[in-house]
Amino acid sequence: MRRADRLFRIVSLLRSGRMLTGAQLAERLQISPRTLYRDVADLQRTGTPIIGEAGVGYTLRKDDHLPPMHFTPEELTALVLGARMAGAWGSESTQIAANDALLKIEAALPAEHRSRVDRVLLFAPPFPHPARTRKLLDRLHNACAENYVLRFGYADEAGRETERAVHPLGLFFWGNRWTLVAWCRRRDDFRHFRLDRMREVAVSDEVFASRRGQRLEDFIRKVRSEKPTATA
């Protein structure tokens, strides 16, 4: 990567407003921490509004004006496709947000590059998800984010009904259906739950603790290293 491109990417990564450590930036750019610290120091000397220090992290001052965001053709393709997929397959609120995001992406581009959005010829036709599923997505996502225990009835493939109390961890889309991954108290293990088989979903006021062996990262590690997780 050319040094000029590397410096531009550093500024682009820091635009998020999040504090990023030198190690995180170096890993994203695939350079050594020493090179990263030297690049940041050079940017600061030229007036780029980077605040922070080695060992703490870096970000950009939000009150400074920066030139318009530029994207490579590949980055723009990824952003537009991602927004189209979110709009086609996400919840009701995600659909609205995805359309707004596409407008903001287009507005952020220099005028001469705005036609690139229309030239992204990758599309995501919507699946016929019931309105109930789209509405349920937002409730379940909030429960995952806030660690609220969920209680609901669930029907397996044979139609057998059970009552579940779970620790919701994340939502996954499998091409034609959404599933909830959770730690199931009944099974004392991870389980997938299809949203279209969940009944009378109740988000409780009970907050569950994130325990080692029951977290989303533990589930992902298990899937990568062992046989697939059992069905509900």
UniProtKB/TrEMBL annotation:
Annotated HTH deoR-type domain residues: 3-58
Single annotated GO MF: DNA binding
Lineage, top ranks: Bacteria, Pseudomonadati, Acidobacteriota, Terriglobia, Terriglobales
Keywords assigned by UniProt, alphabetized: DNA-binding, Transcription, Transcription regulation
Naturally occurring in which organism (per UniProt): Terriglobus roseus
Protein's name in the database: Predicted DNA-binding transcriptional regulator YafY, contains an HTH and WYL domains
UniProt cross-references to PANTHER family, sorted A to Z: PROTEIN PAFB (PTHR34580:SF3), PTHR34580
InterPro entries, sorted: CBASS_pafABC_assoc_protein, DeoR_HTH, HTH_11, WH-like_DNA-bd_sf, WH_DNA-bd_sf, WYL_dom
